[in-house]
Design goal:
This protein has about 220 residues and is mainly beta. The chain contains one helix and 14 strands, in the order βαβββββββββββββ.
C-alpha cells in the first residue's frame, strides 16, 4: 500500500500543510486546533469526502472548528479512535477482571480529551499492524477477550501478552476512515456498539466498523 495523506475539506478543513508520520498508514498530523464536536457534522463531513480505494486513514480534526493553532508533533504520537457514525471516542472504562486477572472495559464519550481516550500505536514486525496501548494505563492494550473469534466477542484492555488478539491491522476504507482487524482472526473487524466495542465479521457496508484515527497530541 502506498502511503498517502488525507487533506480534508469542509468541517475537517486542513489549516496547514499535511505532513507524513513514521506510520506506513499515514494521517494528517499538522492541523489547526479543533474542539470536540457532535456526530452529525462529523458524519456529514465524512460523507462529503466520498469513498476511494486508495485512502490512507483518517485525518485529524473535529466537527467544529476552534481556535487556530498547531498540533504538537513532539513526543510519542497518540491517537483517538473516533467512531464515524456517532462521532464519539473509544476509551478505557471501568476496571474488571478476566479469570481473576485485571482488565478494563471500553466505553465511548463525546469528550475526546484525556489520557483514557488516547491510544499509542506501537508497531509490530508486520507492516500496518499495531498494538494499541491506552495512555491512561501503560502496559494495557486493546485486546479481543480470550482470543475468541465469534461475532459479538467483547474488546477490552488487558496486560500485554504479545499474542495476535492484541495486534490490529489498520486498513483504510476510504479517505477518512480505517478498519481495525485483529490478527488472530483477520476476517473480523473492531465494531462500535452502543456502549463499548466488539468484533464482527468485516463488512464494508457496516459503518460501525468505520474508525477515524485522529492525532490527539494537543489537537482535540
Amino acid at each position: 500500500m502506498s502511503p498517502h495523506i488525507a487533506c480534508l475539506l469542509g468541517a475537517f478543513a486542513l489549516l496547514t500543510a499535511c505532513k507524513t508520520t513514521p506510520l506506513d498508514v499515514v494521517y494528517a498530523t499538522d492541523v489547526g486546533a479543533v474542539g470536540d464536536g457532535g456526530a452529525s457534522a462529523e458524519a456529514g463531513a465524512a460523507a462529503g469526502g466520498g469513498a476511494g480505494n486508495g485512502g490512507g486513514g483518517a485525518a485529524s480534526g473535529g466537527a467544529s472548528a476552534g481556535a487556530a493553532g498547531h498540533c504538537s508533533t513532539s513526543g510519542p504520537a497518540s491517537y483517538v479512535l473516533r467512531s464515524r457514525p456517532s462521532g464519539t471516542c473509544l476509551g478505557q472504562g471501568a476496571a474488571t477482571s478476566i479469570f481473576g486477572n485485571p482488565a478494563y472495559t471500553l466505553d465511548f464519550s463525546e469528550l475526546c480529551r484525556g489520557q483514557e481516550r488516547a491510544w499509542q500505536l506501537l508497531p509490530t514486525a508486520v507492516p500496518n499492524v499495531f498494538s494499541l496501548q491506552n495512555m491512561s494505563a501503560p502496559g494495557y492494550v486493546l485486546d479481543v477477550q480470550m482470543a475468541l473469534t465469534r461475532d459479538g466477542t467483547p474488546v477490552l484492555t488487558y496486560a500485554v501478552t504479545g499474542f495476535d488478539n492484541q495486534h490490529f491491522e489498520v486498513r483504510p476504507r476510504d479517505t477518512f476512515a480505517s478498519e481495525l482487524r485483529p490478527q488472530h482472526h483477520p476476517q473480523s473487524c473492531l465494531s462500535a456498539t452502543a456502549t463499548s466495542a466488539q468484533i464482527t465479521t468485516c463488512d464494508a457496508a457496516d459503518s460501525s466498523q468505520d474508525w477515524l484515527l485522529q492525532r490527539s497530541n494537543d489537537c482535540l
